[in-house]
Specification:
Mean pLDDT: 76
Radius of gyration: 43 Å
Helix content: 55-70%
Length: 641
Amino acid sequence: SHLKGNISSHLHAVITILEGLSEMKKYNGSKQKLFQMLDTCAESRPEESVIRLISFRQKSIHAAKPKWLKSLQDLVERYYKREKRINIRLKVLDVILDIFESNHYSYEEELIDKIILPFLGGSHTESEPRIRRKSIELLTSLCSICDTHKNLDLLNVLGCMIKKFVEQESEKYVPFDDLLIIVRGLIKVFKAKLRQLPSPFILRVLSLLTTHLEYQYDNPNLFGGNYMTRYEIFRLFLSLRAEDGSYHLGFFENDETTYYSPYIICRSPEEEEEAERLWNKAHSTSRPPSPSFGSKQKSVLYISLNKACLLVIQCLERESDWNGPHYTPKSPLICRYGKSINKFVTPLVLFTDKTSSYPCNLSNTPNKFNKSDFHNHSALIRALELGLLSKECNRMCIVALTASALEMKGSMYHLIPEVLLNFSKISATKFISTPILEFLSTMVRIPEVFSSFTDTNYFTVFAIALPFTNPFKFDPYTVSLAHHVIVMWFLKCRLCYRQNFVQFIITRVSVSGEEYEFICGGWTARAHTMASSASAIRPSSLHPLPFHQELTETCLDILARYMYGNVSVKTRRLRTADFILKNGHSASWLIGTMLITVSTSCCTHVAMRNGVCDRCYFYCIRKDEAKDKTDTRRRHVSEFM
């Protein structure tokens, strides 16, 4: 036995040398005989040597050679089915794919019947994970390539794999990675076959995906912690499109390109019911076919996405993974079912219900996850910002942003500079004057939102409000509110900023007043030259100029008074003056833009006791008694030291 071992080792060393010479193209002998010798001792050769042998034999397997299918079958039988080494088996799978791609146009059915189904049909029983996943990838690739009815057999194999995998619930182990590979492969098949005939492949793929998705929601304990397969399936559903007018089914790619199928039409539920009613009326003696997803008519396939839409609704109602509700509501799929929009809206509304268990029951949430993150306040505010660009809905969006500032102070704190910048880009029109000024007026009362404002942010506020002080363009309410906003924001900003704002505000307000005075003066002159008609100009329209002048004077007076000092509602009195004037009489007068208050003491000014009035006398007595109590207390020994 020792001698046999030495002979074997020397023989393998010689074969290795010959292989090296063959690789360097320095071997002058017969390569056919060399690899025949390798074939006889393949079990004892290293993996690299056997892989070279398989590559050599692959070159001789082609359709022009007799019995080439039998040669391929023998190769797969020996080096895939009987072999235990992983890399060799992986190499055989690559060989199968290469040969199928080269010969599937003429020998697709033979390759599937004699090679693919016999050797790969039971891949779900493979114990080695790398081999099992590679075989699944091979099957999905073959489904994308196959053009005949045999493709349905390959899809059935994948469907059986999914079924077998999920039936392993009793073993408390489900190969989620394998399921994910199958799902991604089926999605790849869907994209490849969308614009090809025969179209029923699409129905089978959708049936496999929706059936598996339903099973996952019916078994939340088994699949609850793994969301990737659901994520991939919903990404497919939410990427579907229906062409305007013709309703051809399409797919939205990542490069922002939509591809439509000329053979598949997406029919809405209402259209399906109408078509079925018309069919029954025309063929009252027979019943129409009722496939689960669509109906075939000539070369056009009518497909219904009811099941996909219902699964989206089911995800909104039952998904417990944070990533589920996070990506489902983005779908334009619901636009195809406008009359049933409430079915999509109701689960979304339940998210914010007080009795809702969200977000406490969600899993896979980020760190420091809170309720505002769940409600996605920032995304909501940004969505409303986008609505500001539309003339039809910008007014509603401004009102909604006002409510957001009151209800979502934390999120608005981070986004308020961006919101104000978008406001400054909107033209000052009557349509948005009231809501935008009410927004600014509301914001000034929420210091939690603007506490970190800089001088640039205050400049933006004044730039937004100042155009609305023009009385020629806007009504008195709007002009008054604009002055109110300017004054309030001026008083709220820091003292170091105010002197920079005064010149900016005065220049804009003065220009507005001069423009209005010029226009009103010309209008009045023309009015006097007209015929004496009482109804030509109303008297009230000739007198808003003094009102505007008063607003401007008041605004400028406040700017001048509080440019270097903070505003105080009441003048602070000394304690003595407060004592003297307490319970006294007071009266106030409005003189110009100033409020003058005069207060008198309730003292009788009659010296009754010790030269003072009764009120002052009793006050002095109480003060002396308090002082005597302080003086008569026991002194500490330290005071005598």
